[in-house]
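Ticket #4471: structure export looks truncated?
Reporter: QA, pipeline team
Priority: medium

Steps to reproduce: submit the single chain below to the structure queue and open the exported record.
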Amino acid sequence: METRRLGRLEHRSSVLLYGAAALGDVDQDTADASVQEALGAGINHFDVAADYGDAELRLGPWMSRIRDDIFLATKTGLRTRDEAWAQINASLERLQTDRVDLLQLHAIGDLDELDRATGSGGALEAALRAQDEGLVGAVGITGHGPHAAQTHLEALRRHPFATVLTPLNPVLWRDADYRSAYDALVAEVQRQDAGLMTIKTVSRRNWPQGPDGAPYATWYEPFDDAERIRGAVSWVLAHEEVTGIATAGDVRLLGMIIDAEQRRMQVAEAEQALADDAAYSSPFLDMPI
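Actual output as written to the record:
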């Protein structure tokens, strides 16, 4: 699998990041099979979060075997210093490790959330303390929603985050405002030599009837046919500024995403693979609460 430099952290991350949200509600045997599938494909960057159900607990038993071979990232979704500090330490216990390579401030998609996390007494203070104490190697930021790109640009103006995880896919790119905000973010990411990762690659739309009872564990409806997944993955990875794609939050989609990375299309062909789907739309038009 291709690897790309994760900004100034210098890690050569696989272009597919294992999206461990997929492990949030599965048993250990299912989790083990999925992790093994990822490792067998050459994935060396695992992305989890305290908010992903039991995902950290499912990864924990693997750490004694693979910790030195992977880049391990987790996230805190709490906003105050003391709450985030407790959650960071709990994540280390759940993951059965004494250190993660990256701790990300999670789900910051608008300025209100950014203000809470980066203000006095906010979660950023806990993350930086954890970095100072050697519990985390670097601090990043993530988020989704229609204002994610401009929010992450403002975040980089406030603090030199080592990485950014922000949404990108062909249908978002069609929106001129979103594209402009994303381009501005890329310019600042490159100026600071941060790592830029993406989410929502294989999102098709929001679930028409909401996520309850949906056939996949993702909160959005994903593409689940090989050619459209191949088109979406190929299109995003054609963006050279992107260091990696977080795989979708359902273990059943991983194999098709791995196959898509290995059999990439040209951009024009990728766009054509997605062009005839009238339902293809932003997952942020009517986000579930």
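Status: closed, not a bug. The export was complete when the record was re-opened. Leaving a note from the reviewer for reference: The chain has a mean pLDDT of 97.
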